[in-house]
Design a protein that fits this description.
alpha/beta, single chain, 12 strands, 11% strand, ABC1_TM_dom, 621 residues, binds adenosine-5'-triphosphate, ABC transporter transmembrane region fold, ATP binding, ABC transporter ATP-binding protein, disordered N terminus, 22 helices, four-stranded antiparallel β-sheet
Length: 621
Amino acid sequence: MRTTTAASTSQHESEAIAREAQKNPSRFVYPDDELIEKPFNWAQMRRLFAYMRPYKRQLLPALIVLIIVDTLTKLSIPFLISYAIDSAIAPSNGMDPSLRMLYIVAGTVLGLYIVQWAANTYRIKFMSMIGQRIIYDLRADLFKHIQTLSFRFYDKRPAGSVLVRITNDVNSLQDLFTNGAINVLVDLLQLAGIVIILMFLNVKLAIAVMITVPIMFVVSTRLRRHIRMAWQDVRIKQSRINSHLNEAIQGMRVTQAYAQEQENMKFFDKMNRINKASFDRASMMNQTFSPIIEVTSAIGGFILFWYGSHLIQVGAITVGILFAFAQYVGNFWEPINRLGTMYSQMLIAMASSERIFEFMDEKPNVDENKESKQLPVVKGDIQLDNVVFEYEAGRPAIRNISFDVEAGQSIALVGHTGSGKTTIISLISRFYDPTEGRVLVDGHDIREVQLNSLRTQIGIVMQDTFIFSGTIRDNIRFGRLDATDEEVEAAARSVHAHEFIEKLPMGYDTEVQERGSALSMGQRQLLSFARALLADPRILILDEATASIDTDTEIKIQHALKTLLKGRTSFIIAHRLSTIRDCDRIIVLNQGVIQEQGSHDQLMDKQGTYYGLVAAQFKYM
Ligand SMILES: Nc1ncnc2c1ncn2[C@@H]1O[C@H](COP(=O)(O)OP(=O)(O)OP(=O)(O)O)[C@@H](O)[C@H]1O
């Protein structure tokens, strides 16, 4: 009954969500969240199990010992008991019952149980240790890889959906590695052992009790696909919740400022309920495995005792053999049941590993190859040669941009919002590759040099300065990790950050929270100036970097900027045009093309777009 209720509730909700999704698609649909249906994939399993390879040496001997101990004890105990029944309790050959023999067998069985218990305890401990290491490796690999992925990758995906793959998807593989993998071997071996022994004891009875196995196999095979799909659906719902949570937490200030908490809660609640319904459905399907096994084992038990007692009556088997059969058949369902659980675990692992490997196979759009050479220390000449760039195919953000910048020059990029300023500096930093044309630094096409050697020579100060959790000192030192404390302080002094840092409770050792929420925008900006100065790059990019600094600080910083820019090629994007007056050249962009360029005075004389922008700013001052 419950299945129907949960399923119909979920369907009802899904329809409601789908209707809302049509009205507001961007909040629901993430491009990588479509249900991917692929057949059970051995290549993928092999790839996953390749993570066990480094531990092969530790794993193999322990595995062999454990398998032997566990399987042998499980297989020999019923045999011993059956022997005790037939030769010590109720001898079928007319001899007297032997109490001594009974004690010996009972003692041996007890000993075997103890050995089995010890082997199992060791197996669990050992596997959980190895399993944790494998998960650690997998997570490290994934993180290492996503760090190499380009801006295009992150443009397409919400941060939460990336997060969920590193956390949830990797976690869901834990069970597979800590319990599953090794159990499969033990269980398969035990099954084979039991079948052989049953056949050896009595072929007819063995066939009779195993008649139910093919029926069970067919039923469970049919269930497979549904279970796998259901678990994929759960992951998708979870990914959506996480993506939404991430967005909600980041946008909490805006939510509270607009008093939209209730609206947000309603939205979250809906997603949460859908997630729960999806989980209920999947786990319910999962649970159908056990009842199938139980019913089948009950039928098997009935056949055993019905046909077994008939065989005793006709003298084909002894009571001891029937007892051994009962024990073995009991032991037979146990591994099958576990294999069923294991199969579900594999299905979950399939869904998760599919998503993990999808990320791992994602190639960085901005890549280097074996021929990429180290960019030598540059002077700072920059050339854009007929550059076109499209974020989305067919919609160029910039078109046919060409300009030459000599080392040491300062260039301002000016233009209305969306005119392509940030795009140009993203191309110079090689966050993206041009769709057409080339970007050259000191005559080297930047696609042909190693990324690291390029980026270490470029310093970028963005408007939305990223402050990491850690001390103020750590944050400045992020520019150059081997800088001494004195160098950190000197950089801070040069950009007038030292004054406010000194006033903080612990000075340079003050801990700033993630994203520097306890610092003002202007203070964060000063920190990033110090960070850039410390890095001492040949090329410096300031993207709206002075926008959040008050006029008073700005005057101070203008001097600091002069020091910062001296001898470096620099690109400055500023809406506040007073800050770029002294630049060697001002490039005015309009809808992705260069409209005019020249010095401040030249452009003012020309009375074109730049003149219009300056006049407009004056008017509102
Ligand atoms: N990640 C992106 N994906 C798709 N389109 C983008 C992306 N980033 C920018 N664009 C588009 O490219 C064009 C140029 O954007 P760009 O950010 O370079 O403008 P900008 O001059 O720096 O604007 P602003 O002054 O507002 O920062 C715009 O039309 C913008 O919508």
